[in-house]
Amino acid sequence: MSAHPENRAGLWVALASFVLWGLMPLYWHLLKVVPSLQIVAHRVIWSTLLVVAWLLWKQGRGWLRAALAQPRAAWMLALSGALIGFNWSLYIWAVNAGHVVESSLGYFINPLLNVVLGVAFLHERLRRAQWIAVALATAGVIWLTVQFGQPPWIAICLALSFALYGLLRKLVAIDAVGGLGVESVYLFLPALAVMVWGEAQGAGGFLPLGGAPGWGLGVDLLLVFGGALTALPLIGFAFAVRRVPLSVVGLLQYIAPTLQFLTGVFVFHEAFDRDRLIGFVFIWIGLAIFAIDGALRARRTGVTPVAAASEA
Predict the structure, then answer these.
(1) Which segment of the chain is annotated as a signal peptide (predicted)?
(2) How many domains does the chain have?
């Protein structure tokens, strides 16, 4: 697969995208001085400008009209935009509130929750190995709930919002970057209103626009560049998924939550005792079964890059 130059480029771009996603907690932690809602507002504003500029360059001024001409695209992308906005907000708050490990759990659970939603909404059928994987992950979540007296709400909400986002995007026939562009346009004005409101109330400090002392030029630049870090991995993923088999992408996706988990434990020194380890081990075993089953099935059926792109 990787012998072909285009496939090799796709593999490296996919790897870079997942590594960037995995190291995001380190970046958002640099912005800890900024309120989480303001970080999200800036993330939306600057990523919107970048993504829309990209689409104008690649597709011309008619890209938005063409995207919204798809059946059901207008309201479904508005809903998926709301879900991804909620996901970003919860994730950034969790990272800066010391919940990186639990956040990583959400993205470990996410692939298995995607399977469950496929059964519930798309009438897909699970193979025996997939049922076992889902059962093990469920056992892990139940264990964590019993041990700590409440469900891991951050992980569950992150996994559920992202899985529902993926379901909606699967039902809309639009490419990843074009869909993100429409979602960004929907979110832009609310994000701009949040930023302006924050500046007016003294909760902001960008440049500073509202007369507050400001966060400093370094933080301002990090906020702006955060938009690029939002858009670039997704653009890279869209590039890579058309060139790399789905079985490979499926295995690479675990790089991001693994790096998030390692960051939480070894960089931010978050608590990870034996009880948490037991719950995670159930989920990791389930993921291993899920990934191995997917790789074996892809090998038997001979998934091509084109099929990978359409399924992803």
Answers:
(1) none
(2) 1
